[in-house]
Amino acid sequence: MSWTQRGAVLALSLSLVACASLKGPGAPGQKLDPWENWNRKVFAFNEDLDSHVLKPVATAYSEVVPSPARTAIDNFFSNVGDAWSAINLTLQGRFKLAAQQAFRFAVNSTLGIGGLIDLAGEAGVERNSQDLGQTFGRWGFGTGAYIVWPLFGPSSVRDSLALPWDRTASPALYFQDGRSKVSIYLLQTVNARSNFLRAGEMLDGIALDKYTFIRDAYLQRRGSFETDDEFEVITPPPAGEGKP
């Protein structure tokens, strides 16, 4: 799981503060967490790594790099994500939205100076971020058990199968040199982490059990609970839907 995805989980977590049903020993995510003992150990390792390495680097980055430059870098990476979203929307059979994301990518890649400026967004063309895990869900694959991976963070069986392909949705793919690839991945990770410094601090202050909170927020976002219909990208339409 990339830090962009983890940031989305953090943002969603903050929006679920008032949802008592998502917290505590009876949390709905518990039944999807058969490897909880192992997952908690990996979670603790990731938290320690974030606290001692990634967060300090991201903090320094946000203090040194001007906000307009960080926004441009963020737009650049998001623009590549738009191309991957267009591919996944096509695989999901959602061609209108796929065309919209392809249009975003085309406009921002050309008129937006390689994606540094989100001209499409300013024109009102919304971003609809999709990944292969969501595409698998659209095809009817269940989320499966919850997994926490070292470095990548929260995931599931389904999303883990998609992870190798989702990780290629980065400008690093276009570089042959290993050092350049690593540099791009590091910049992408640090930039994404810097975007959620405040959200992370808020989550530290409000979550009684941070592990449970993030787990349930992740599974909620990926469509594992009864509210799947809230997230269009997860649940396949019922048989016969739309037929007269």
TrEMBL record:
Xref: PANTHER family: INTERMEMBRANE PHOSPHOLIPID TRANSPORT SYSTEM LIPOPROTEIN MLAA, LIPOPROTEIN VACJ-RELATED
Keyword Lipoprotein: yes
Top-rank taxon: Bacteria
Lineage: Bacteria, Pseudomonadati, Pseudomonadota, Betaproteobacteria, Burkholderiales
Protein name per its UniProtKB record: VacJ family lipoprotein
UniProt keyword annotation of Membrane present: no
Signal peptide range: 1-20
Entry-linked Pfam families: MlaA
Family the entry assigns: Belongs to the MlaA family.
Organism: Roseateles flavus
Record keywords, A-Z: Lipoprotein, Signal
